[in-house]
Amino acid sequence: MSNDSEIKKLHKQSPAVVPVELIEKKIYLIRGHKVMLSADLAKLYGVEVRVLVQAVKRNIERFPEDFMFQLSQEEYENLKSQIVTSSWGGARRARPYAFTEQGVAMLSSVLRSERAIQVNIAIMRAFVRLRQIFSTHKELAYKLAELERKIEKHDEEIKAIFEAIRRLMMAPKKPKRKIGFKVKNKEGGSEE
Question: What is the reported pTM?
């Protein structure tokens, strides 16, 4: 079942509840920001995209560039090719708007329905959950790097220990016995 049909099914069952997992699938990384697209937000809110965009444009002072921006044509094409769905944006020709976490929070002051409030709460939880996941991954990556450094240091020490053990395991070299007779020289010393 596609994400869109899951959303429609949820609207019928319980219009105020959207699972965080479903929302997480709609969060993209664009221009270094985690964002949600206007088309996805409209579906979650249960409104048409044009209604959402009109509400935003009527309150544009609430949406500075770090809250919302419109995708460039190149970003739009790249995203369409990554998502690979036949129903991308429907007949909509305009490039979608991308809303950062702050922009999505601001939408709750523009769209005032009960559904908008509940969806915003679920979206905020999704963003928080993603931040926690990324934080955990950063901590894990740091700990892994630390472990690698320690192992590298230990590798050198372990190699030195094995080398010392190998040297100890080798039979000591006995001096070769010389073949022949010992002859005393005139001064009283012996020659071989």
Answer: 0.58
